[in-house]
Amino acid sequence: MNAVELSLQALAQCDALFKHEHMWEKVREAMRPMVERSNDSRDALVIDDVSAAQFVISVVARYIEQQIEPGKFHVYRGTLGIHGQSLRNIAETALRRLEEIKAISRDSYLSRLGQLDQKVMEADAELRSSGLRWPALVEAGDARAVH
After folding, report:
1. pLDDT tens by residue, 6-48
2. What is the pTM of this model?
3. What are phi and psi of 79, to 5 degrees?
C-alpha cells in the first residue's frame, strides 16, 4: 500500500475514535481531500499503519485548531457553541490519542489543549475589534451584541 492508501485507511479507522461527536462527519469530509493529495513530506512519513494513523490524527487535530481559532464556532464571547464544543472534543481526543501512542509528550498534549482553550478566549477580542455581532445575542435582541 502507498502512503495515500494507508492514510485513507487510517482516516476510516478514525470513525471509532470520533463517531460519537456530531461534527466528525464534517471533519472527515474536510480531511479526505487533504489525505488524498500526494505530498512528498507525508509520503516519506507514512510507511505503515502506525505512521498513517499518527499522521491522520495529527492532521485532524491541527485542522480543528485552525477551525476554532477565528471564533466562528462561538455562541457567546469566549464560549463555544454546540458545534464548536464537538470540534474541541474531537481535538482533545486526537491530542490525547497522540500522547497515548507517544507521538507527542504529555507536556505537548497539555500545552496544545491549553493553547486551544486560549484561542477560544482570544477570539472574543478579535471578533469585538472586527465589529461583528454575537449570533446568540443578536437573536435575543440583547443590546450588548453590538460593539
Report:
1. 999 999 999 999 999 999 999 999 999 988 887 888 888 899 9
2. 0.80
3. -125, 125
Burial of 8 (0-12, 13-18, 19+ CB in 10 A): middle
Beta bridge mates, 79: 76
Cell of 132: 461583528
- Asked if 53 contacts 16 with a C-beta cutoff of 8 angstroms, the reply is no
Is 110 among the domain residues? yes
Q: Are 54 and 6 in contact (CB under 8 A)?
A: no
21: containing domain:
3-122
Do residues 115 and 68 make contact, with C-beta atoms less than 8 angstroms apart? no
Please state the domain count of the chain. 1
Q: Does residue 99 lie within any of the structural domains?
A: yes
